[in-house]
Amino acid sequence: MSRAADAPRTRATRGSSEFRIGFLVHDVSRLRQTVFDQAMKPHGVTRAQWWALAQLTRHDPAGGMTQAELARVLGLGKVAAGAMVARLEAAGLVSRRPDASDRRLNRVYLTARGGRVLDRMIAVGRELNETLLRGLPREDVEAADRVLTALRSRLGARLRGEDL
C-alpha cells in the first residue's frame, strides 16, 4: 500500500482544497499588491505608503488615528510606525496633531495631497479590479466575495477568542 493510502483522511493533502485555500489567498493577495505597486510607482507612492494611507482612511477617515492604532493595523512596532508616519509627513501626505482628549498622543490625518493620492489609488484599484474580474461570471465573483468575507469573519472571531 502507498503512503498516501496510509494517511488519515482528515489530514489535508497536497492537491486538496483545504490545503490550497490558504496558499491561493496568499498568492492572489501578494500578486495583486505587486501589480498595484507597479501601477502606483509612476505616482511616487511605495507599498508601505499606500498601505498606510489606505488603513488611515479605512479605519477612521474623519478623526484620524493615533500612531499606536496605526502601528497595530499595519502590524508594525511603535518605533517603525513613528518612522513611517515621519516619512509620510515629510512627503506631505499626512499631518500629526495632538489628540484633543489626550495631548500626549498624536493623531495622524490625511492631508489634501494625501487625499489626492488616495483618490488616485482608488482609481487604480478600480481599473485593476475591472481587468482582473473581466470575463468572470458574476455568480463566481459573488460566491468568492461571500466565501472570503466568511473566512475573514471567522479568522477575526478566532483571534478574539470566540468560538467558531
From TrEMBL:
Mind listing the UniProt keywords for this protein, alphabetically? Answer: DNA-binding, Transcription, Transcription regulation
User: Which InterPro entries does the protein's record reference?
Assistant: HTH_MarR-typ (IPR000835), MarR/SlyA-like (IPR039422), Tscrpt_reg_MarR-type_CS (IPR023187), WH-like_DNA-bd_sf (IPR036388), WH_DNA-bd_sf (IPR036390)
Do you know which SMART domains this protein is assigned to? HTH_MARR (SM00347)
- The transmembrane residues are none
- Domain (HTH marR-type): give its ranges: 18-153
Gene3D superfamilies recorded: Winged helix-like DNA-binding domain superfamily/Winged helix DNA-binding domain (1.10.10.10)
Q: Which Pfam families match?
A: MarR_2
One of the GO BP terms on file:
response to stress
One MF annotation (Gene Ontology) recorded for this entry: DNA-binding transcription factor activity
Mind telling me what this protein is named? Answer: MarR family transcriptional regulator
- Name the species this protein comes from: Neoroseomonas marina
Q: What is the lineage of its organism?
A: Bacteria, Pseudomonadati, Pseudomonadota, Alphaproteobacteria, Acetobacterales
